[in-house]
Amino acid sequence: MRADLALSIVVMLTGAVALAILPQQIAGYGYDSISDMRSPVVFPAVSAALLMLLGAVLGLGTLARGAATAAGGEGTRPGIRTAAVFVIIVGYVAAVPWIGLPVASFITFLLMSLAFGYRRPLPMVLVAVGTIALVLYLFGHLLLIVFPVPKVTLW
After folding, report:
1. Apex 19 CA angle, 14 and 22, nearest 5
2. Is residue 19 part of a domain?
3. Which residues fall in a coiled-coil region (predicted)?
4. pLDDT digits (tens, 9 = 90+) for 51-102
């Protein structure tokens, strides 16, 4: 139970830090441009806010379930999982400006799956690719949100 509460706090703090550093990460855009759906600030800001919201949901759900059912996976040391999730999320936030949203999201999906004990590679890859494709289509084409251009590209 304590590990899940700690994880929820880490996730909420990560979202808060991402929101705090966002104006410095995307040059020329600040929170004043967030009302423009084409601004590259929108998606990262929504993502960081969702991190904070889902971290709160995890924490409240853990408190509601109590210690008996929120102990974590069998054979998993929750402290290591909490640290791994923190490192993965911080790495994701740091990697997006450099390698781009799709590549960073794919790597994050795979690492999070491993951190939570999923070991079947085909479903992990299919879920990662499908989710990323859906997000890129919904936000990029339907909502016309401009994603940050990565600093390092292959083309």
Report:
1. 115
2. yes
3. none
4. 888 888 888 877 877 744 544 454 556 677 778 888 898 888 888 888 888 8
